[in-house]
Amino acid sequence: MLLKLVLLSLIFSLSSAEKFRYDGYALYKIMPQNEHQVQFLKDLEYNDKELDFWRPPTRVGEYVSVVTPPEKKDDLKKSLTQMNIHNEVMLDSIQEAIDAQVHSRQKRSPRVIREPVMHFDGYHTLENINNWFQHLAEEHSNIVTLVTAGTSHEGRNITGIKIARNSNRPAFFLEAGQIGADWLSPTVVCYIVDQLVRGENPEALAASQDYEWHIFPSVNPDGFEFSDNSVRLWTKNRTPQSGNQIGVDLTRNWNSQWGVRGGSFSPAEASFIGIGPFSEPETRALSRYIESIGHNLAAVLSFRGFGQRLVIPYAHTTEPLDNYDEMITIGRRAMGSLAVKYDTQYLVGNSATVHDGATGVLVDWAKYRFRPPVAATFLLRDNIGWGHVLPVVQVLPSCEETYDAVVAIIREAKFINVL
Could you tell me the pTM of the whole model? Predict the structure, then answer.
């Protein structure tokens, strides 16, 4: 996630050719067992800016992920021991996990451009993805079209792909990569693209015949590139903010109960929601694209790491609004399908009950604005503490099980006459 204040001066001093390294930065998984411990961790997050809370404290029984610099390890361990809070060290040095992730991208770069099928047993760069999309548009021009929603702050195209075997079909809109450090969700949605284009599986073929698909794997290309080239765990976009700060959390910048809950009004924080809804060029561009197909929307699915949740609108309330009950049924059945291959367990519900309750999210805005019958956010692997340094060996399983879930959503939605 976004580095805390103690690291900002180091980040701003980096040259374009330098990368921040996380040697000796430890990743802790912490499990609060009572309200007193939860409050202690909340106070620690607020007061100690040298600690980077990837997954902040929310409620009893839900783990907290914290990254600590080398000089703070002993202090954190002592504090947790004094409070009798269970904890374990996931990684003594997260740089080792980052190196493995980067290696999985670099060794595939030449192959991805030459071959018609992308490999999904590792992560990919933005260049890899865009080159592959271009290849698909050239080789499958009868069903594949490159589309651009607009440009980012730094002038990069927000590139997507449209897949349609038939005309005048209801639209499925999928997006990923709002978080710069999230390298998993872009790869996962590319796997879905691969399945739909090749159409070798009968359900994939039917899905691409019955619907037109609009898929954007990297909504935050500037943050994605900065995560690749400079600061691996950078989460926000790259727009300049007040106080010499950089970036907005795009996942909280949408015009749905913006700023009500779960975000920060401080530009120095990872969860900074911006100066207003749609303040960022990326969210404005993508919202205009969704507007252009809004009359035809059957589904809006958002993908990001991590937490193993299927989150249903809306975040600002626990009330079962719109077709919430139907989506709970669809979601639970689909997550059952997701679990078949690898027994990966997902929770299903609205954000206030199963996640962080943060408002201003894309799916909530799209659901309220266009009323697509299917709308949900996938919080992908994992739920044991790896976060954005998810081991490479889990990439392909994540792709496979998520694709199974998307197909199951269509199947279950049709079964109960939602689609």
Answer: 0.92
